[in-house]
Write a structure and sequence with these properties.
Blueprint lengths: L2 H14 L5 H9 L20 E4 L2 E3 L2 H10 L7 E5 L5 H7 L4 E6 L2 H13 L5 E5 L12 E6 L8 H5 L1 E11 L5 E9 L2 E10 L13
Parallel strand pairs: 3-4, 3-6, 4-5, 6-7
Antiparallel strand pairs: 1-2, 7-8, 8-9
Length: 212
């Protein structure tokens, strides 16, 4: 099966599993997942599985990426903060759907690789930062949407503070092995939380990684 055939097969699988938002499916079709993984895993790039990318991190299962993106309820004019750039794949998907993505990564080596991919793909609406995801990006707050791609045991207060009024935050929350995707909506100074999907993510680690 060719890369193109495998991509189409994945989109059909996602449709069968309940991902129906055509904007999200189109974004998944347009962004070449093979550009975001090591060559050793190229033959499995369009399987509906997570894959390793280095530094103990992964590129998430396509279904989970699509589900969390749909849960974010992103609009064309949205200003989005992503915590955990990783390979850059989730940021590239978000960049197809919104006005601007600000993405923070604690591993400098992963961030440099992701920046190279953004440049190669002509994604000019993605702004990157090497930093501590627990701190967010206060200088650019507030954000209409916040996506967290690693799992803290609870949502960091700094991220809640940076969520704009009527904003939405989506994150995997909980201890290792017992995590769930939650969606939090901010209404004035109240935060309303929904539990959406059981998942397994790498833990979210506080601070910036030491020299790699």
């Amino acid at each position: 099966m060719s890369i193109e055939e495998a991509r189409i097969a994945l989109i059909m699988t996602l449709r069968r599993e309940g991902i129906t938002d055509t904007r999200i499916l189109s974004a998944l079709e347009r962004v070449p997942r093979e550009a975001f993984i090591p060559d050793a895993f190229r033959e499995r790039v369009y399987e509906n599985i997570a894959l390793p990318i280095g530094q103990g991190q992964t590129i998430s299962q396509p279904y989970v990426i699509a589900f969390m993106t749909a849960a974010l309820e992103i609009g064309e004019r949205s200003k989005v903060l992503e915590i955990g750039t990783g390979s850059g794949y989730q940021a590239a998907i978000l960049a197809q759907l919104c006005r601007r993505v600000y993405t923070v990564e604690r591993y400098r080596s992963l961030l440099r690789e992701a920046e190279g991919r953004f440049q190669a793909l002509g994604l000019h609406n993605v702004t990157t930062r090497h930093g501590d995801g627990y701190a967010g990006w206060p200088e650019q707050a507030p954000f209409e949407r916040i996506m967290v791609t690693a799992a803290p045991e609870r949502v960091p207060e700094a991220l809640l503070a940076q969520l704009g009024d009527h904003g939405v935050l989506v994150a995997p929350i909980g201890p290792h092995g017992r995590q769930e995707v939650v969606r939090i909506r901010r209404v004035d100074d109240e935060f309303v939380q929904e539990t959406l999907l059981p998942v397994r993510f790498v833990p979210m680690v506080e601070g910036i990684a030491k020299a790699e």
